[in-house]
Amino acid sequence: MAYTSSLNLPKHLLLPNPRRTRHRPSSSSSSSSVSFVPKAAAKANGVNGHAPEKKPPPPPPNGKALIDGVNGKKGVNGHVNSKKGVNGHVNGNKGVNGHSDRIHLSVSTGGGGPGGQDGSGLRVAFQGAPGAYSEFAAKTALPGCDTLPCRTFADALAAVERGAADRAILPVESTMEGTALRNYDLLLRHGLVVAQEINLFVHYCLLAMPGVRAAEVRRVISHPMALAHCGRALARLGVDREPVEDTAGAVEMLRSNRMLDTAAIASPRAADLYGLDVLAHGLQDESWNVTRFLLLSRPPSPVALPVDADAKTSMVVAHRGGSLMVLLKVLSAFSSRNINLTKLEVINNDGDGAGAGARPPVMILDTNARGAPTLRAFPHVLYVDCAGTAHDPRVREAIQEIEKFAVFVRVLGCYAADTTVYDLQ
Fold it and tell me: Quick check: is 293 catalytic?
């Protein structure tokens, strides 16, 4: 019997306090709202049509993302933000049911990417067509980098392995899907290391050919996950849904075939890139929609971190039996040294993948195997992210303790912990 469980510990994806990030709808309002944007932008002042604060505090110098509070209250970082919302528009537009948009996120990325990294001269492989969320995440993490579109995630990793790219970027977790993206499994099959992380606010828009009105749309195309994330909004619009390989690919298809009865779900940046009209903003069912991406490189890691850096170490622990006992020992190894965990996911599978609901064993590349690296199969796997660098004495001692009782341990990477949530501004 296979099951997957995730324990998301403090700081994982910066899950916010709902009272600070969502507007409380009235009894007559729906649980989700989509803001249709006419060609002439809305003229309303302030967030949700409210007047802006008279004396807003100065913007934070650290380039962190700020979540606007409700009616001028403090946001996630304790700041008041009454300026323009997502995509630089004033969020006074009305939604499908006459309600205003609910999520307002503004980001000051400042100079350089997360951790001050510069991507000039680096090539980053991503899955999808130009304009995909992965591409924007890569350009945000490494400003100035060149991007290489790939058909599949496996192709992106292969591009790094053969030297055609310096990095590959993979989405690995989502606040709406959890770890269902399953790209961790793909990561384990390759010998690349995690060099960087970035959290991106995924803001879905409904895009159409110039001049097409929302009432003329009969079909919506996009990646299956994007369609699922916008299910309630699409149901209210009463349109057919057709899955394609990725969001940017849907936009590319829409543009090249000049589909006048079809819209695509993609990012606001994709609309600018392909010259399409934005019919609706904030199409996602849940206003707080963040995806975590990992940037991978060939070993050793190209980013050197001091021992006292604000960092994360990712690892995988595999074993063949006694799952609960191993889990408790792993927790003890970190807690006894006062090391915080930011991620712990447990995968157990005692079956052969043939039964209903069963999944095959997890395949992990043993990069330390004698001779050539070898793929090994394990029925029990723990994904662990801990605070600290791999060469921190406490972290190193914890890993050495785990190696004494686990069948297999592999450090996936050590990288700067970036708690900022970036928007596509």
Answer: yes
The amino acid sitting at 175 is T
Q: Which two tokens stand for residue 176?
A: 């709406």
| 200 contacts 136 by C-beta, under 8 angstroms | yes
Question: What is the per-residue pLDDT across 102-123, written as a single tens digit (0 to 9) for each?
Answer: 333 333 333 445 555 788 899 9
pLDDT tens-digit profile of 347-375?
887 655 455 566 788 999 998 887 788 99
What tokens were used for 343? 């991620």
Long-range contacts of 215-220 (CB under 8 A, 24+ apart): 216/260, 216/261, 217/261, 217/262, 217/263, 217/279, 218/261, 218/262, 219/261, 219/262, 219/263, 220/262, 220/263, 220/264, 220/265
In this structure, are residues 83 and 52 in contact, taking their beta carbons and an 8 Å threshold? Answer: yes
87 pLDDT tier (thresholds 50, 70, 90): very low
Alpha carbon separation from 414 to 184, 332, 341 (Å, rounded): 16, 21, 14
291 classed as catalytic: yes
* Given 293, 334, 342, 378, the catalytic residue: 293
Q: Which of 140, 175, 291, 313 is catalytic?
A: 291
